Amino acid sequence: MAHHSNFFSVFCIWSAVASFCMFIGPSQTLAEEVITPPNIVLIFMDDMGYADIGSFGATAYETPNLDRLAKQGRRFTDFVTSSAVCSASRAALLTGCYHRRVGISGALFPKAKVGLNQDETTLAEICKSKGYATACIGKWHLGHLHPFLPCQHGFDHYFGLPYSNDMWPHHPDYLPETAKHKRKNFPPLPLLEDNAIIDADVNGEDHAQLTVQYTEKSVAFIKENQDTPFFLYLPHTMVHVPLYVSERFKGKSNAGLFGDVMMEVDWSVGQIMNTIDECGLADNTLVIFTSDNGPWLAYGDHAGSAAPLREGKQTMFEGGYRVPTIMRWTSKITPDTACNELASTIDILPTVARLIGAELPKNKIDGVDISPLLFGGEEVKSPRKTFFCYYGGGQLHAVRDGQWKLHFPHKYSSMEAGQAGAGGVSGKAKGRKTAEELYDLVNDVGEKKNLIQQHPEIADRLRQLANEARRDLGDTLTKAKG
Q1: SS3 content of the chain, % helix, strand, coil (to 5)
Q2: Helix H or strand E encompassing 416
């Protein structure tokens, strides 16, 4: 009996180790997983819509490098951001929290005196805790004053614009004087390196080189740190208006300026992928490509598309906060696959912490480890069951639970009912108000058919979930303090 008992114990241990090795991938041993945590490259677009890349439906221009990324990795078709506006979305991404929890609302303007609190633990600080080299190259938008800049939040290096590129007094020649006049009171837009201003007055020619500069500095960072673990955060300035593109891509798309800009972004992704491959790092680098929110539809032909989703940026309909997302890790993620499960940018921090063996922040976070969705098959279900759709300063507009989404009565700016602009000039949205509306996102991703009368029990369950969120995070719509 003792012999059989000992054999059974050994068998159980062997089975557990084998199961874990299957989880971490066929080409790595358990020891290698512990010794060599993956590099992380996080490419974060600005105002890029759900249907703006080839593998998610774009047809007016080509995105061959992003198509290759999708072929070599996994598309996430139900991936959402915390809010459909710049600063809030970025705060959530880097802290693993709903933006409401960390007190960053809407978009911070050049005269803002606030920024991301230093008590928050960022994704960069998580990586630094495990000895990673870290860099942020691109648009920050979490506070432009010294205490709030990237180098005070875990990044070794920073290069880029401190906030959105439309917050400046200069404007493209193609804009009429009326459009230029709206922004004339902004201060000059600075370009920063680490904590220092290296260009105090970014002009149009400078703008046209930003994507190229971001790419060159990202490539250099990867090459310089190829022998050590690294985290590269690349939040592009594009495709936020005003649009700019280098001479190399001007007119190349045959789809207008927006198409040209998207082709240059695609080139940038290709340069980064090629550098990772040439350095022999593809098998140990997780590349994540996603966006901060949906398209700014008011700008018409200077904006992208969220098709087949409803509305866009500045709403919490699916077109506003569901974003195209691709992840590649050649030794771990099955190529040319898709995950249709609910997941979010707030889940990236705890997932990376799990993958590199780092401790989670001491402060409460809202993200969950979604690594099973990266490595498992179609049968794997998301550990994220619910998502609370907060907009702006703290309005709970909707709640997701699996395939169901319940909107609460709220005002919003509709571009489906409004008039889109053209040539870089904003159109005009039309104010609307929702009723209480229930949608089945599996069968109606465009949120067209309100099913609240047919499924009162589901609506009631989602109302209860919303009340839990209000007790925790508050809700300015219902005056809940949280």
Answers
A1: 35, 20, 45
A2: strand 411-419
- The tens digit of pLDDT for each residue in 396-421 reads 999 999 999 999 999 999 999 999 99
Closest CA to 423 of 304, 305, 301: 301
CB atoms within 10 A of CB 198: 10
The Cα 235–Cα 211 span in angstroms is: 10
Question: Rounded CA gap, 303 and 106, in Å?
Answer: 19
Residue 266's nearest CA partner among 48, 479, 101 is 48
Write down the catalytic residue from 99, 141, 207, 240.
141
Alpha-carbon distance 140 to 126, whole Å? 18
Q: Assess whether 141 carries a catalytic annotation.
A: yes
Whether 86 is catalytic: yes
**239-250 burial string, b = 16+ CB within 10 Å, else e?**
bbbbbbbbeebe
* Tens digits of residue pLDDT in 75-124: 999 999 999 999 999 999 999 999 999 999 999 999 999 999 999 999 99
Would you list the DSSP string of 224-254?
Answer: HTTTS-EEEEEE--TTSSSP---GGGTT-SS
Cα 404 from chain centroid? 22
